[in-house]
Amino acid sequence: MKLERLTGEEALARSAELIEIYRIAFSGPPWYEDGYGTADFVKRLTTDVRRPGFTAVLATHDGSPAGFGTAWPTQAPFPEGRAYDRVRLELGGQVEKRLVGALEVDELAVSPHARGQGLAGRILDLLCEDATDCWLLTAPQAQDAIRLYERLGWQRLTRPATNVVVFIRSQDGVRQHQQL
């Protein structure tokens, strides 16, 4: 596997590869994304690449796209819309203290043919390597993703019965996890 860090402009130039991975990775359970979901991703991507500090990682295998991740620092005040309102509802006052300023991993997608090889962890490591703190969210139905983040040492911030699952990772926590 080859992993490349991409700027916003580079991600736009390679958007066909990102879209292909997104479509394949999120077409099955628990997401069941259809053409509309992929179209929404395309709109988000063209906006997200312009966020301050945007970065992406693209993984390819034998020249074919296999996975990607996108991230940027969460700006103050904590955003509204999308899933941000659910995060604020679940975390309350912790949002500003724990998430603002941290690197927000927005998308992480691995094609089914590339799963089970540690690729998601490698993408996350490269995305987060320069950040002190990183955070991400997923749906409670995404049990495979939840197990992955827990296995990688991410700390869950939300309670078990919730409508959004938020994880955070600090560099101190990563070092502790790697020493185990």
From TrEMBL:
Example of a GO MF term: acyltransferase activity
Residue span(s) of domain N-acetyltransferase: 1-172
SUPFAM superfamilies to which the protein is assigned, alphabetical: Acyl-CoA N-acyltransferases (Nat)
Enzyme Commission numbers on file: 2.3.1.-
Gene3D superfamilies hit by this protein: 3.40.630.30
Transmembrane segments: none
InterPro entries to which the protein is assigned, alphabetical: Acyl_CoA_acyltransferase (IPR016181), GNAT_dom (IPR000182)
EC primary class: transferase
Entry keyword set: Acyltransferase, Transferase
Pfam family, one: Acetyltransf_1
Keyword DNA repair attributed: no
Name of this protein: GNAT family N-acetyltransferase
Organism: Nonomuraea helvata
